[in-house]
Amino acid sequence: MRGKKFFSILLALAMMLTLLSACGGDSADSGSDSTASGSGGDSSDTVKVGVLLPLSGSTAYYGGVQLDGIEFCVNYINNNGGLSSLGGKQIELVTQDSASDPETGVSAFEKLVEEGVVAVIGPYNSTVAAATVPLAIQYQVPYIIVNSTAENFMSTENKYVYRTNTGSTDGDNMWTLIIQYLNQVRSDNPTDKIAIVYDSGDWGTAAVNTWRENAAKMGYEVVVDEAVTESTTDMSTLVNKIKSADTDLVITACFSAATNLLVKQMSEYGCTAKVAGLGGGVGDTEFIENCGDAANGVLYSAPWIPSYGGAGDEATALAEEFNTTYGYEMTMEPCWGWLGMATIINAIEDAGAADREAVADALYQMDVDKSDWSLWFSGYDGVHFATEGQQNSVFGDTGVRYNNNDKLGETDGMVLVQVQDGKWTIVYPTSYNDGADTIQY
Question: What is the reported pTM?
Fold first, then answer.
């Protein structure tokens, strides 16, 4: 309490000095200086939080649905009394479009800093994250990464950049369990030949890297390894390679257009290998509609979402409200948006002030478990950040990753789902199906 009072006195003095300098100094220069170094976020009626997402460009769809989840979380808090530690102040989102482009993302991030936001949530693209993370550290702005999964931008020790979701390497344990399970249900013909098809950008490249490294350990051979892009218009040659190699499983880390094309052409050419998506296009709400019957049998190692079942009563009711409000079921992006935004809200509440340093300190010390409201739409065990670092040879240049959520749980909050009869159905862990093997493999 005494610390908070002392902080309040300092804040009041700082505000008085700012008013005096605005009256007597050069307005352009003083405005520029205060924007870069100000504590940020707190206006008379609201607390500003920045949102950096692709609302145009190649990944605009994903940015749009992630924004829905962020807005849904903010509306939930604002409609239920606002920020309690700040006397009920409302959260105001300040949104900038990264345009799916790193250079644009840098300019957009700097605009958010100039707006005086207390924290930033986003982006979607790993390339944008890599370009903007250094800015968050430079400007000392808390930055919650909610979707970018590459590891290269998490290798700097700091107290400003945090990631609530999984990184690209975090699914290794889950996929080890999945491969073991697939070999169990098809013991007479184990999964020993795998094709890797990935987007040539940062996310796709990082997402499949461990599949090459783990081949010997997990008992399979990589028989096809090929990069594609969203502009690829024909995969017939690739599909025939997969077919002629007698492939059991195609691991794909592609966005929507490439995923849809691969699945359709595999069906057209009679390629019977199962497709397993790591995210991206298989997570698109229109994937099944776009691919039609060709989608049946496709597997997806997905973060748990409410439509798969198993949510608490309050989360189930809110998921239905989301569906009514936005016209679609909560997918991964809205759920991760909710978790990231809720984490910022928890940090502001813990800080008791819309102050960047205080919020950064609260994130650094955060430790919440599964019962917390922030995890209603997550399969994780909690939110706690590995501020002392995690060792792994693929974690960027240093081999150490900082500030990733280390309460992901044994399965990293993931389930294996499969398109059966035109809808996603959980097939692993089998505990969701009373122990029955319902997978089509």
Answer: 0.77
Residue 132 DSSP SS3: helix
Dihedral sign (CA 413, 403, 369, 335): negative
Residue 33 scores a pLDDT above 50: no
3-state SS assignment for residue 348: helix
The 3 state secondary structure assigned to 261-323 is HHHHHHHHCCCCCEEEECCHHHHCCCHHHHHHHHHCCCEEEEECCHHHCCCCHHHHHHHHHHH
Q: What is the CATH number of the domain that holds 270?
A: 3.40.50.2300
Task: Report which of 432, 330, 328 is spatially closest to residue 377, judged by C-alpha positions.
Answer: 330
Q: How many C-beta atoms lie closer than 10 Å to residue 193's C-beta? A: 17
Domain annotation covers residue 256: yes
Range of the domain at 362: 35-167+314-401
Query: What are the DSSP E strand ranges found in 132-232?
Result: 143-145, 161-163, 193-199, 221-228
- Report the run of H or E that residue 417 belongs to, with start and end: strand 414-420
* Token output for 194: 């795998």
Specify whether the CB–CB gap between 251 and 195 falls below 8 A.
yes
The percentage of the chain sitting over the pLDDT mark of 90, rounded to a whole number, equals 74
